[in-house]
Design a protein that fits this description.
Helix content: 25-40%
Order of helices and strands: EEEHEEEHHHEHEHEEHEHEEHEH
Largest sheet: 6 strands, mixed
Structural class: alpha/beta
Strand content: 25-35%
Radius of gyration: 24 Å
Distance between the termini: 48 Å
Number of helices: 10
Number of strands: 14
Shape: globular
């Protein structure tokens, strides 16, 4: 049985003369949560619509695992594919009630009839829509429709889930609910492919990230591995009390001296001109360091032991969202520059 559950082979898609996807290749393994990120118009939604068979590629193949554990072309009719769920951005529904809509979706996907009502109630309760179970969806807000769209994607308990911007238009609490449910599905061994421009959400739930730009996959790896190519990597630590302004200069000087072996020696001035910065509004420091795991431990020991009389350390972390934002910006920028150079050479 193959560990690969979805494979894109040399997929290209055109809209007229516009090349939306240019020969992309991607493999997702069983149980992985993979994030697809890129600028607007990069090809994220087109990729998911091709996998959902809402569009057909101009060239290439999309392979999905079947119940025998083999990869099979999705555009060849078969009833043997593993169960999949799809959420395409900005869902649209007939003006029925959530109960009727979800019951229909569950039946179409062959969910056990005797369990449908319980499944509907469980999911509507999880996403705070149970009081709206028998109300017409024309009365729903955008956020409520978004949650209902997510529920219809998972109503039949699919093995593979494809999500396109699932948290767009949601309030913070609803985003947390979606994020937690994705984690729950991950614990169950589900495979999830999620496209989003919300980098924090991607950094919180995904094992790997695929960066897409101008229709091409330009990098695909774990956040930790992608981070190794960053020009600068940061640590944040928060202190209990504000640092008095008159003490700040000498404190940063001592921090810089004591942490010198671990600081980034080639710090990009566009990111910061100094390796240690203080944010007074947050009572926190940012350290740009060499990115090594051992260095993080050494830095933490120095902060605790050498500066215990200067401040009380209350948190110490390597922020994933900050790293992913800079990975995204740096790799997309480098790719744009590369393509401009290639186009100039052709001219």
């Amino acid at each position: 049985m193959t560990k690969t559950v979805i494979k894109l082979e040399n997929i290209s898609k055109k809209y007229g003369t516009f090349l939306a996807l240019d020969n992309i290749n991607l493999e997702v393994q069983n149980g992985e949560v993979v994030g697809l990120i890129g600028p607007n118009g990069a090809g994220k939604t087109t990729t998911l619509k091709l996998i959902a068979k809402l569009l057909r590629p101009n060239s290439g193949k999309i392979l999905l695992r079947n119940i025998r554990g083999e990869l099979q072309d999705i555009n060849k009719n078969s009833k043997e594919f593993v169960q999949t769920g799809f959420f395409i951005d900005i869902p649209q529904f007939y003006n029925a009630t959530p109960y009727k809509l979800l019951k229909l979706f569950a039946k179409i996907k062959h969910y056990p009839k005797e369990k449908i009502n319980q499944r509907i109630d469980e999911l509507l309760t999880t996403f705070n829509l149970i009081d709206w179970k028998d109300k017409k969806v024309k009365t729903f807000s955008k956020g409520m429709l978004q949650k209902l769209g997510f529920i219809q994607a998972v109503i039949h308990d699919p093995e593979i889930l494809f999500l396109d911007e699932p948290q767009t238009g949601l309030d913070p609490n609803a985003r947390i609910d979606i994020r937690n449910y994705i984690r729950f599905l991950k614990q169950q061994g589900k495979t999830i492919f999620v496209a989003s421009h919300l980098l924090y959400e991607i950094s919180e739930v995904c094992d790997k990230v695929a960066l897409i730009n101008q229709g091409s996959i330009i990098n695909f790896d774990t956040i930790d591995n992608l981070e190794k190519n960053l020009k600068s990597i940061e640590l944040n630590f928060e202190v209990l009390n504000p640092i008095p302004r008159e003490m700040l200069g000498s404190l940063i000087k001592r921090l810089t001296q004591n942490l010198e072996p671990y600081l980034d020696k080639e710090l990009d001035p566009s990111i910061s001109k100094i390796p240690i910065k203080y944010k007074p509004q947050e009572n926190s420091f940012t350290i740009f360091y060499n990115g090594e795991k051992k260095a993080r431990g050494d830095i933490l020991n120095i902060l605790f032991n050498d500066f215990k009389s200067d401040f009380t350390l209350i948190s110490f972390s390597k922020p994933k969202i900050s790293s992913l934002e800079r990975i995204y910006s740096q790799i997309i920028s480098d790719d744009d520059k590369k393509k401009i150079k290639i186009n100039l050479m052709r001219e």
